[in-house]
Amino acid sequence: MLESGEVLILPAGWWHQTVMLEDSISITHDLVNASNGRSYMHALAVESAVDPKVASFHEESKPYLATWRDRLPVRKTREIRRVDGRDLAFEDFLRDFLIPREPVVIENLIDDWPALSKWNMDYLKTHYGRVFIQYFKSRDDRNKRMRIRNFLETDFGAPHYAMWCLNDFYDVLRRDFHKIHLLDDNQKDWTLDLPPKEQSELTWIFMGLKGSGIGTHMDRLGQHVCSAQIFGRKTRNGFTMAR
Description:
single chain; alpha+beta; four-stranded antiparallel sheet; two-stranded parallel ribbon; globular; Cupin_8; Cupin-like domain-containing protein; JMJD6_ArgDemeth/LysHydrox
């Protein structure tokens, strides 16, 4: 509750609503500084493409936005915590990582998955080479499709990556990866309530040759991402929403 004379600071990223408990007047100001400048300027550019009023404000503000970029703090990364999956209970996983939105690398969690010893680029090309996948040079690329075999054999001149939504191949490929104890029932993973077809649409294989990658982004539906590395190595840097 907010009383007369009090000031509420609501950081970026909070869902919020307002109910007037009595006749009410307040003054609200949008606050931008080093803590949220990067995300604010990005959102401003995105919204200006669809909202004429925002577009006008964006255009008039460009000289000032240019100076703001010089004031942005250098992004700092930190080591993501690592834990042993054999000793991790779901309640601890939920409390220590999911609820506070802390990323974590879990070791020894999928050691019994057949995919770890079977899957590599040659395996996918041999067994699923005729399957069509989406491929990208950047996140701005859309609707480019190519068979897996052709994708892995084509010299694009620059690194590309590919996304394969499992769909019709879900049941076949699931033989090589299965539920893990942290997410093995619908109380731990609500998506298990969904019919198999919908479940398959939430499972993707990402593949890319050396040097490819995905630019900074946020998954727009607010889902947690569970990414099991099957073959090769990659880096995955995370940044808090406010930055």
